[in-house]
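Lay summary. Proteins are chains of building blocks that fold into shapes, and those shapes determine what they do. In this project we predict the shape from the chain. Here is one chain we studied, written as its sequence of building blocks.
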Amino acid sequence: MQADNDDQLFRSADQLSKEASRTNKANRHKRTGDPIDLGGKVLRAVVRNGEVWCATSGGSVKRVGLETGSVTQSIPAHRGPCTSLAFVSAPISPSSLLITASWDKTIRVHRITSSPTFAPIRPATTADAHADFIKTLLPLPTLGLLVSGSSDKTLKFWDLRGDLVQPLGCLETVREHTRPVEALEARVESDGRVRLWSADSMGMIRVWTVQRVEGEERVSVKEEGVVEGHKTAVYDLKIGRPLPDDDEEPLAPEELWSSSSDNSALRHLLTPSPSPALALPHPYYVKTVLPLSHHVAGLDKPYVLTGSTDENIRVWAPHAVTPGAWTCVRVVEGHFNEVNSLGVWDRRAKGEGVWIVSAGLDGTVRRWKFEDILKPPPEPVEEEEEEKDGMGMTEEEERELAELMDD
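And here is the predicted shape, written in a compact code that computers can read:
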């Protein structure tokens, strides 16, 4: 018997069923979360000054106004999927620097301004920055450094001092990881050194002390230990502490949150001494974690949000009765593919509250008022399916993308 559609010849029944389910879900949630359709997979998104910047599978970075929902600028950043982006202040001009990295193994430095209509300056390109895909970037502005992590299992420390119009100079390479490096996080210590956390696809989180050696073109990187708890790949790291409601309230212990393919998000208390991790169990991989209380004071609870490969956002809070236990207080549907980025859009100055911005592999950015998230969700209205514009990735490309991102 011949298949009705040649595209279905080499797809399994499970794949076809999943595709049909996603199509149905996309139709039911056309308006859920006030979506902005970017027409391509979002691999990383960063909320900044009322905008969200999205690194996409097509290699471009899309700049989106959160108020208008419009794409105000599209930067052709890379020839391969753009996996990471970060911002630092430009050392010479009043503009800022957007730094991007990609599967094409390059790091690029783009000068940007507050106006999306500026004529972009040709980016400074560091070609062959790593021997394999670059998966994560983290600026250390107090040290004038950029850290990159790659599938080649190395960390590299790049010099951000100078005019940044030439390729970046590598000051140090660290080879202690035995698997691809997936995520980075850091904090500045009181003595000016930087504490750095790096996580890999085996679930290993390593802790480093980083110091720039003044007068010499080198960086001192010393391993301080490991943070245990995960069994497989760690995708995201977030460090901080819940903000106090007022100046007289004592500071809460500092905490490191991590998300993993072992179907969990973990909280590790770092002060006064490391303590056993608190686990938030999920049914599927956890791609991103957002401790909301690190960004917003005055919440009734220290909420934490997670995004997962099961296409949902979850909101977690301490259990009302059991001390030390946490519970999932809301599951938020809307996306119809993996959710890999969560950010805070603070609109309280306009009297409009705190909003959550989410993005992922369904190619949409969604905007959620947090107080509405906590309410029971209304039933989505199913609408007639509209013809697709054909700009998304094929199922085969999507599987390849997922496999490569998990390497």
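What the prediction tells us: The first helix runs from residue 13 to 28.
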